[in-house]
Amino acid sequence: MRFGTKAIHAGVEPDPTTGAIMTPIYQTSTYVQAAPGDHKGYEYSRTHNPTRTALQNALAALENGTHGLCFATGMASIDAICKLFKPGDEIVSTNDLYGGTYRLFTKIFEGFGLKFRFVDMGDPANVAAAMTPNTKLIWLETPTNPLLKVIDIAAMAALAKKHGCLLGVDNTFASPYLQNPLDMGADIIMHSVTKYLGGHSDVVMGALVVKDAALAERLAFIQNSSGATPGPQDCFLVLRGLKTLHLRMQRHCENGAEVAEWLVKHPKVERVYWPGLPTHPNHAIAKAQMRGFGGMISFTLKGDRMEDAMKVLSSTELFCLAESLGGVESLLGHPASMTHASIPREERLKNGLADTLIRLSVGLEDVEDLIADLEQALA
Ligand code: P1T
């Protein structure tokens, strides 16, 4: 099955009791048993819920995995990955990543004895140098949030294999429409479902997809034991969102390209971060491992003045100033004070995240209107 067909059909069967084509919202906490242990595969909704099962199967299919696991938020799904490990275990992570992930790693799991090293994964040698016999996971985002660096997933998979550790990929920015890291050797894919998968800014959710039954079982044990599972209503909304994922992503890519190319030519713009630009330092890898370049763009202004950045951030009318991304409506944000404020300033600057960086999530509006909005804000 091709991607668009899978987006509409995968994991979803007409409801066995009524034939309803849309998976019903099984708004129930528990399931009646005929005798102890004599049930229809469902005992309690923290463990299993039919609406969640349909979504988990759909996500597994879209990522070419065998098992999907949904969580209450993207952060809860990364939290579940960390719980695979024990004190003394080490994780090598990208140095450009969502601020909440950095916070979870350094403020929560370092306290439980996990060790994190943050490296620039643009050069696999940096990752190789950070690996020790205790390294259990290589963790990356690609494209990264917010600098849109693209990391060579196959190269990282080769390193993980050589060291006998897992490779986890946060695939939130690309979505399964643009790349499938399991096919490139990753072991775990993570999504902030909140973003492109949900797509309508009405749900917060996370997911993991794997292709190894034993790993799936360990993660399902954590999912059920820690209990950060999403409710059926949210699962329904994401199932609905998935049906247009391919169409939405197509348009995000088209609009992203037009906006990025327009920004590059603007006299007030210093630098544009978008992997589809031939001048992007990782453009070759992006072209090789992605099927398109997405709708996330960051940029800085000439002169690098905070007051100029602030003026743009508060002057757009269509682009709404807000955290999050991947919805139908365009958003803009200021990573240094918003999504990445939990990373210490000196760390951010060391990794190239300027105080003046502006991040766009280009939505599905008519692109002429989006460009006109940016034009007046920059003016
Ligand atoms: O917000 P939540 O669903 O818990 O997902 C966390 C998360 C994980 N990974 C990436 C790459 C993310 O971008 C996020 C959430 N990011 C934002 C809210 C943001 O505006 O960048």
Could you characterize the architecture of this molecule?
The chain is α/β, with parallel strands linked by helices and 379 residues long. It folds into two domains: 11-242, Aspartate Aminotransferase, domain 2, CATH 3.40.640.10; 245-378, Alpha-Beta Complex (Aspartate Aminotransferase, domain 1), CATH 3.90.1150. The chain has 14 helices and twelve strands. The chain has helices at 3-9, 50-62, 74-82, 99-109, 124-130, 153-163, 175-178, 213-226, 232-242, 245-265, 283-289, 306-313, 345-350, 367-378; strands spanning 67-71, 90-94, 115-119, 135-141, 166-170, 188-192, 206-210, 269-273, 296-301, 320-321, 331-333, 358-361. The strands form two sheets. The protein has a seven-stranded mixed beta sheet with strand order 1-7-6-5-4-2-3, sandwiched between helices. Helix 4 links the parallel strand 2 and strand 3 (115-119). It is globular, with a radius of gyration of 21 Å. The relative contact order is 0.13. The mean pLDDT is 98. Ligand P1T binds at residues 73-75, 98, 100-101, 141, 145, 170, 172-173, 192, 194, 204, 206, 323-325, 339.
